[in-house]
């Protein structure tokens, strides 16, 4: 027999929405961070240096910062997520502690980086702006990668999204069924709070072979009855609830939840299914995904329980 209601899920913390809600701040012209104002005026970024520069600077530099004294070397690197190692490789005149960052000089903040693991050379973008030419690259996995991309994107991406002004990690994640932390893990330069998401650049929204993991917490309460002879009926009820017109699938508002309740054929119990949106943004649940989530606990938990998959919670 089935319990009247699955027990509440009490393990997962609600930090996703907090991270997801952070909108992106302003960056160089072609790649503005979508909605918030910049914490520093870094408008002195350009594809050509306006100040003198050290002759040892990378000859392949594609973007420059003009040091007018407004921001320190370490602050500039932190603001754009550029590693000191990369910055020094492009600007050999910079010392180990980001020293010799001279006011009135221009410095390279984007250039090709030679991989140490292979003999080929690949381009890794820093968090400064690049050209807006519409191009693509073919990495070793054979998948065409559109350009420009969010810096430090993973190399096994097979689906991309062009970020627009006003987008957040939450809105992008909700649209593609991935959590904010997942999106950040595929392009760490976004920042742990999604503060450095670029507009007018591509982000990875799916990697080769990725399947979103599903977690559950099965009930162990004796008061929650086993499925018994009602299991097949419970699976059928879950499918009925998720089908078009059943109420379980479709649009979910911010933090919205939907519930379906059906009579069990054996005994006096009922089947109750609930799914909630924890993406931090409105989301849409397909019929197939709804069935997957609603039937998951019937198939994996003897007495029901609760579970999660990316930004979806269900019990």
From TrEMBL:
Domain LysM: 62-109, 159-205
Region Disordered, residue ranges: 115-150
Record bears the keyword Signal: yes
Composition-biased stretches (Low complexity): 115-140
Signal peptide as annotated in the record: 1-26
Keywords: Chitin-binding, Signal, Virulence
Pfam families associated with the record: LysM
PROSITE patterns assigned: LYSM (PS51782)
GO MF entries: chitin binding
UniProt record similarity statement: Belongs to the secreted LysM effector family.
Protein name in the entry: LysM domain-containing protein
Organism: Microdochium trichocladiopsis
């Amino acid at each position: 027999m089935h319990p009247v209601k699955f027990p509440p899920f009490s393990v997962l913390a609600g930090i996703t929405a907090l991270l997801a809600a952070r909108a992106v701040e302003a960056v160089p012209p072609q790649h503005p961070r979508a909605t918030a104002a910049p914490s520093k005026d870094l408008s002195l970024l350009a594809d050509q240096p306006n100040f003198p520069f050290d002759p040892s600077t990378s000859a392949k530099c594609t973007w420059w910062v003009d040091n007018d004294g407004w921001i320190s070397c370490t602050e500039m690197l932190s603001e754009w997520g550029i590693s000191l190692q990369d910055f020094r490789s492009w600007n050999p005149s910079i010392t180990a502690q980001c020293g010799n960052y001279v006011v009135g000089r221009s410095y390279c903040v984007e250039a090709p980086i030679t991989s140490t693991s292979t003999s080929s050379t690949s381009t890794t973008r820093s968090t400064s702006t690049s050209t807006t030419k519409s191009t693509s690259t073919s990495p070793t996995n054979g998948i065409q990668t559109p350009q420009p991309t969010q810096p430090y994107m993973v190399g096994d991406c097979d689906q991309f999204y062009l970020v627009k002004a006003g987008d957040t990690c939450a809105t992008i994640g909700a649209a593609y069924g991935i959590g904010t932390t997942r999106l950040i893990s595929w392009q760490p330069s976004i920042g742990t709070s999604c503060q450095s998401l670029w507009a007018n650049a591509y982000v990875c929204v799916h990697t080769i072979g990725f399947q979103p993991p599903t977690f559950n917490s099965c009930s162990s309460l004796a008061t929650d009855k086993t499925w018994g002879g009602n299991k097949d009926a419970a699976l059928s009820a879950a499918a009925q609830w998720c089908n078009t017109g059943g109420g379980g699938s479709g649009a979910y508002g911010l933090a919205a939840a939907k519930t379906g309740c059906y009579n069990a054929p054996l005994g006096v119990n009922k089947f109750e299914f609930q799914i909630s949106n924890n993406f931090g943004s409105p989301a849409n649940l397909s019929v197939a995904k709804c069935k997957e989530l609603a039937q998951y606990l019937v198939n994996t938990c003897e007495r029901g329980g609760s579970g999660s998959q990316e930004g979806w919670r269900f019990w």
